[in-house]
Amino acid sequence: MHHKIRCAIYTRKSSEEGLQQEFNSLDAQYEACKAYIASQKAEGWVLLTDRYDDGGLSGGTLERPALQNLLAAVDDRKVDQIIVYKIDRLTRSLPDFAKIVERLDRAGASFVSVTQSFNTATSMGRLTLNMLLSFAQFEREVTAERIRDKIAASKKKGMWMGGSEPLGYRSLGRTLVIDEDEASTVRTLFDLYLESGKIISVRDRAAAMRLRTRRRIHKDGSETGGKPFDRGHIHYILTNPTYAGRIRHGKMAYQGKHPPLIDPAVWDDVQERLQAAAVKARGCTGHGWSSALTGKLFDETGDRLTSTQTTKNGRRHRYYISRRLIKDRSQDHPDAWRLPAAQLEKAIGEKVKANLSDTSLLLTLAPDTS
After folding, report:
1. In whole angstroms, what is the distance from residue 131 CA to residue 121 CA?
2. In sequence order, what DSSP letters do the residues of 207-248 get, joined into one string?
3. Per-residue pLDDT tens for 84-124?
4. Hey, is 152 helix, strand or coil?
């Protein structure tokens, strides 16, 4: 004797499908499922009395009263198997289908489609199901890719695609408009940097002038912002291409549809100064000595080498790199040089030492004093 399998029939009809069409009516679907359950009586299938009918509702959404009630009954372990006339009665959306199957799996339940001999309790049914779920996953990934591509295309056209609005701007649809109250703060920060060339002094002057970050009031009534600007925030503002009327996407910046808050030429000038200051700061390694060969070396393209450093596992590593790696980060430079500083300095030092101890070379270099 087989153990009892409690079966619930689910039927759905969307409003645009006429009642006159055979098997679109809820009753016709119900009768067909009922007959199928009767044919499986020997397997222990029994029909539950509750009916789950959704009339005039689309299969594109899971927000259907009868379906929700049925899934709740499955969660409560009151139903072992859902019987549908056709899979699309359950849902027309693959991702939703995947969600339903996950819920059934959790409750140890399965579903059967009468006309498509689709039974998740059999190995063939599981195989078909896995194929469908793989497609659902693929569909989700393709959708995500399409959204990413759409955002990239919109940004290339200069549209504002959301996110937190930069200080000095408010979003208006797909673009930004200047908020004059805040804009004066941003312009002051740029002016202070152009005067001093040091972010530290911009921070101190801005604090003395009582310039504050944007105050935000959250849904729960709490407040953030309204504080003095710190170094990081000032650097972020000074390097934000939005202020030059551009839209950033990854490493690229495109001409935006919004008005610039800072003259683009001035913004570009600030970037050059910031980079030069960063290179200068990197030149000194904190060991009290700088990279001695800075400005004296060139790669084969004639590009000057500049010194830089990285910290890995608490150890500092210095390099001499082609300037274009710092100046133009929008593209890779496969031909650029990146040489370890210590090795290079040692090699050049040894060469100089050898030359200085070569008396014949010294005699050719030294002026004839006789």
Report:
1. 15
2. HHTT--PPPEE-TTS-EE------HHHHHHHHT-GGGGTEEE
3. 988 888 887 777 888 898 899 899 999 898 887 677 777 87
4. helix
